[in-house]
Design a protein that fits this description.
Layout: E1 2-6, E2 51-54, E3 57-61, E4 69-79, E5 82-92, E6 97-108, E7 112-122, E8 127-138, E9 141-151, E10 156-159, E11 163-167, E12 172-176, E13 178-182, E14 187-197, E15 201-211, E16 216-219, E17 223-227, E18 230-234, E19 236-240, E20 245-256, E21 261-270, E22 275-286, E23 291-301, E24 306-317, E25 324-335, E26 341-353, E27 356-366, E28 371-382, E29 385-397, E30 400-406, E31 410-417, E32 420-426, E33 428-434, E34 437-451, E35 462-476, E36 480-487, E37 491-496, H1 529-536, H2 540-550
Antiparallel strand pairs: 1-3, 2-4, 3-4, 4-5, 5-6, 6-7, 7-8, 8-9, 9-10, 9-11, 10-13, 11-12, 12-14, 13-14, 14-15, 15-16, 15-17, 16-19, 17-18, 18-20, 19-20, 20-21, 21-22, 22-23, 23-24, 24-25, 25-26, 26-27, 27-28, 28-29, 29-30, 29-31, 30-33, 31-32, 32-34, 33-34, 34-35, 35-36, 35-37
Length: about 550
């Protein structure tokens, strides 16, 4: 038996071949004795039921099959508020399944449009398989692939042969080998060879989630984000592509174009402002200026060329042959008005280098001329010598100390033996070094001196105590005294050691801070109560002014 329905055009031929029915798995109808067209008066809104709305030609041949109808020309189906269009189709009425070919289109209201060359719809499973030149449009989102499975019960589409999702509102394109897109939540998941591309950067990974409503990308695997200004490496986090805000976890790294890096357990980054914050085991490196900052919290502003760390903060400066290890409550690097890189440290500063160590309240290191400026209760040690003052300016040349100035009071102390210390204080000091040894010392104003000259048998048996307005001290190699000049007037005395009273052993300002001295790199963190108390004490200038008012 043969049934043919047509419009005004006559049917030229009868389809003779049995079709390869892709929807067969979802179609298990009862045997029909006769195929009948849909009745126009039928309820077109039956749940999950597919109705034939239009076809120029409808054919059926029960000798070939009683399960499907053959449709041609302007074919249109309806499933609830979903319409499906094509050039030709096999329609399985009992199971509401169909195979559609040529100019396939699915539309739902004004929000969802799907295009393809081939559609296989399985009514019992409510699954639509779209093949070749597939394009799904959902408001501002377009999905393009060659193979898409669309689950109508959950409004979720799956592709598995390379797909691209374009978020036109945010000018972002995402592609991957496999993907999943939820129309209700606008959540997409991409896996294997994932790329996110927009005007500002490109993201590469193997697993990524992206929401086309919020424009937030959720990073779930090792990921690289590349732009003209920097490169980001991370394995976990999220990126708001609409405002260029991101938070990364699990030891993520931001590397600037000039080589600076920011690493932390958690990294917050804003691309528009070009700055980042990090928490937990933070490391900021500046290879050009040979500085590494680390701490528990860090901040880096690439536009302002400014970085700082705090909470167990440390700086390692390796521009010279020997590395300087520096600790303070807060450390920062910046460019001054002359574009010179400056390292600054604030509160409870401690530093260590094999040949020199120091403490102070605040410090600045200029990387252009390698000058260390130490402020407030500054103390520097080298070998058995200690130098202290309210301000110490130390110049390094070829990794060793070249000269040092103490412009606002200075005290130099060297341990001689037992309770004996060579001591020198003055209003201003300038010291010159050669091969790590002190060779010359100029003292200007209020000079006070206590010395224990070494005898020929290397023993000490007397103390020299002297005062004057000016002094120049010259030393030979191995710190042998060459000449001491004091002027214009000198007062003092020489006293045998056995006649010295304990009150005569020390100058009024004498303090020996050896307990506070860092003796290895990790000692820079040992900021105890004694050092905190020293830094909180009034400065020497304040003490002298207070003493002068009471006299």
């Amino acid at each position: 038996m043969l049934i043919v329905l047509a419009g005004n055009a006559a049917v030229a031929t009868i389809w003779a071949a049995q079709p390869i029915r892709a929807a067969k798995a979802g179609a298990k109808p009862k045997r029909m004795a006769k195929i009948k067209p849909q009745i126009p008066k039928a309820n077109r809104f039956q749940k999950n039921k597919v109705f034939l709305e239009n076809a120029d030609i409808l054919k059926a041949d029960e000798q070939l099959s009683t399960e499907y109808q053959i449709l041609k020309g302007h074919v249109r189906f309806r499933r609830g508020d979903m319409f499906m269009f094509c050039d030709s189709a096999y329609f399985y009425d009992e199971t509401s399944s169909l195979d559609a070919f040529g100019h396939v289109k699915m539309s739902q209201g004004d929000t969802l449009f799907v295009y393809a060359d081939v559609l296989h719809y399985y009514g019992e499973d409510q699954i639509a398989e779209l093949r070749h030149n597939v394009r799904l449009e959902n408001r501002n989102t377009t999905l393009m692939t060659d193979s898409l499975d669309y689950d109508m019960t959950s409004d979720v589409g799956y592709y598995f042969d390379r797909g691209v999702i374009v978020d036109s509102k945010n000018n972002t394109e995402l592609s991957s080998l496999y993907g999943r897109y939820e129309l209700k939540t606008k959540q997409a998941e991409f896996s294997t060879n994932v790329q996110l591309i927009n005007d500002q950067y490109e993201m590469y990974t193997d697993l990524l989630q992206y929401n086309t409503g919020t424009h937030i990308a959720t990073i779930l695997d090792e990921t690289e984000i590349v732009s003209d200004s920097n490169t980001i490496h991370t394995t976990s986090g999220w990126y708001n592509t609409s405002v260029d805000d991101a938070t990364f976890y699990n030891r993520s790294k931001v590397r600037s174009k000039d080589g600076k890096t920011l690493v932390g357990d958690t990294v917050y980054y804003n691309r528009k402002r070009n700055y980042g914050e990090a928490r937990g085991n933070v490391i900021i490196t500046d290879p050009d200026n040979k500085v590494i900052l680390d701490g528990d919290y860090g901040y880096h502003d690439d536009n302002a060329h400014y970085s700082y760390v705090t909470r167990r903060a440390r700086a390692r400066e390796f521009s010279q042959k020997d590395t300087v290890y520096l600790h303070a409550d807060t450390l920062c690097t910046l460019l001054n008005e002359d574009s010179v890189r400056i390292l600054r440290a604030f509160n409870a500063v401690r530093f260590y280098r094999t040949d020199i160590q120091g403490i102070c309240d605040s410090l600045q290191l200029s990387e252009a001329d390698t000058i260390i400026n130490m402020y407030r209760h500054a103390v520097v040690w080298s070998d058995e010598r200690q130098v202290s003052g309210e301000e110490i300016n130390l110049h390094l040349k070829d990794s060793t100390a070249d000269w040092a100035t103490l412009p606002n009071f200075g005290l130099m102390v060297e341990h001689v033996g037992e309770d004996y210390y060579d001591q020198l204080s003055g209003k201003k000091m300038k010291a010159y070094f050669d091969n790590k040894e002190l060779r010359r010392l100029d003292v200007d104003g209020n000079v006070m001196l206590i010395m224990y000259p070494q005898e020929e048998d290397s023993t000490y048996n007397k103390q020299v105590n002297a005062e004057s307005s000016y002094m120049k001290l010259l030393l030979k190699p191995k710190q042998e005294l060459e000449k001491v000049s004091m002027w214009p007037e000198v007062t003092g005395q020489v006293t045998p050691l056995y006649l010295l009273r304990r009150s005569q052993l020390y100058l009024p300002q004498f303090k020996w801070h050896d307990k506070l001295r860092p003796k290895k790199p990790d000692d820079i963190y040992d900021v105890g109560d004694e050092m905190r108390q020293l830094m909180a004490a009034p400065s020497e200038n304040i003490r002298r002014r207070a003493q002068s008012k009471t006299q």
